[in-house]
Amino acid sequence: MSKHAAIGGKLITRTTVICAALFLVTMILLGLRFMNGLGAVANINNGYPWGIWVAYDVVVGTAFACGGYAMALLVYILNKGKYHPLVRPALLASMFGYSLGGFSVIFDLGRYWNFWHIMWPGYANPNSVMFEVALCVACYCTVLWIEFTPAFAEKWGAAKHKHFLNRVLFVFIALGCLLPTMHQSSLGTLLVVFGKLVHPLWQTSLLPLLFLLSALSMGFSIVIFEATLVTSAYKRPSEARILGFVTRYIVVLMSAYLVIRWGDLIIEGKLPLVFSSGGISFMFLLENALFILPIILMGPKGNRENERLQFIAALSMLVGGGLYRIDAYLVAYGRPGWHYFPSVGEMMVTFGIIALEVLAYIVFVKKLPVLHPVSETGEPRIVERAPAAAAATTK
Amino acid sequence: MSINRRNFLKGAAAGGAAAAACAAVATSPAEARENKEMPPKAVGLLYDSTLCVGCKACVVACREANDMHPEFSTEEKIWDTPLDLSGYTLNVIKLYAEGTSDHKDQEENGFAFIKKSCMHCVDPSCVSVCPVSAMQKDAETGIVSHDPSACIGCRYCVASCPFGVPRFQYDTPTPRIQKCQMCKHRQAVGKIPACAEVCPTGATLFGPVTALREETERRHTLTPGQPNLFPRKTVDNLADGHEKPVAHYQPSTYGLTEMGGTQMMLLSGVPFQKLGYPELDAKSNASSSETIQHTLYKGMVAPAAVLGGLIYAAHKHTKHDGRDEE
Q1: Which of A80, A98, A270, B70 lies 20 to 30 Å from B311, alpha-carbon distance?
Q2: Do A206 and A260 form a contact (C-beta atoms < 8 A)?
Q3: Which domains occur in chain A, in start order?
């Protein structure tokens, strides 16, 4: 008997319709982009050749999609079986996050029809961090879909296949832990070659480590964030207790992150820049405040099972990690005389991609065995019909 | 989940594998990737701002040689008026003007011209970052060229060039990256780059990098105000040279050390930073980036070791997954 169950319920709700409409707008804007060039929709220019489609959709988006990575590491590598109920929903979100990150890359590439060159031996350049990231993200997308196949197998009753899957799945789980370690750190390394184009408060050869630590923390945070939303949207029993344990990892990882980041600033003599860099100083301090908040909130044991505080801590970590990436790629990057702020169309495309992600997530949890059935005793209980509230989800 | 002997052993085994994997990463030899060396037959350009009269003949010649249409920045589209390098302009002459702009090659109350085109770095960032090897540096001549048929349009080269040289075309569904390729198609048939060929004052000279560097050193030893014979077109072409009083040069040559050296060199009377050329380290950005990549991924040894540990742990911990406890 499966430990997971589809929650059922109507697919057409206010939320899903809004999400679908947003994605439709994105499709129209992308049509414009493919007919008239990137400049027809995006504000990117030769001073800022990468806009939010790279910095948000790919760099932040895949970090937000690190829930599957973080939970797989916890459950299958560190053998913390109690977190098992959190794995599959996390994998699902990762699957969509990464797949859509990959999709964003395609429409951001100027010469997308040559995309296959990146994996073609005659063209591929292993010195390029971009090559490593692209290959790794493509592989990880595949791995995520494979890791998720047991859900499909359960849905369509392919018991034999499920048995076979279970026998080989550990290889993909291992890959699913290795690949994000590689490309999430590489998303930091990607900036090293920019040298002085990136403000010294961000530019350091430790970028790969800082990106990796914050990506993992964001992975744990998105699990808390999503679990809390799903719990409240579908009126499921609170998972605050188990999520409380997860917060410990955020505290440890972000403490390490802060020690490394500030230690590096001290050793490199960049400390004075923290306050003397004008607006960029503010961004730097804001980021750090957002990183410190989860440590303050979740440090004391007594707070950890407080649902509200958990949610605030996770949100703070997600916003902080997102800001760190946007700052490093866009705000702290620049050449004299150039400016960039995303156009409305550019932002609409990004919103549409997020909407598609939410939409797909809702469809999947309603139709496929993703979430653990609602039961305190551990006995599987398939929910035939979702509570009426599920259909009226608006958040 | 209670801690029983089996779980303890499993945990210990996984921990051991993870520790071994981490050790493999930590002890893998950190092969610092040094700056690349100047190619044996490196050719380049020398631009002497003090000789430039701002006629922009080189801008026009560059367009003709590379088959690119003019760019307009004025309302009446009569003159080719590129404001900067772009997806449609590979070479541009800019003007520095300060205060009353009375004196040529003077920082205060003066003016100066400056050329912008590819520096042809000895250790180019664009070549290092290009995921599909569309950017290439010729092993012999050192010319940095771009192959649009390989390019995927990711614009990593645009983002990473410290000089802001490669430019992308944002206004077309079939865009290309554009940059100066030192007229390699002209060099292939024995000609020199168009900009050097048409320069009436020898402000832009073509030649072997060694000869160009000798020439910059020679110019630094000249006495300002004294007449000197300056070559035209190529650095050794004194027969076609012209005499002109020597200007006050800035003490350094731009491009000798910047980013590990470049094959285009600049001389100027005005500090280079005022002319839009950034202050850069002697260590190339490509070497910093590749040092990290090579340390982590040399022969894929470290990732393979980590994967081994992960597979071991994942296998241990999923074996009983079908019937495991909550």
Answers
A1: A98
A2: yes
A3: 14-374 (1.20.1630.10)
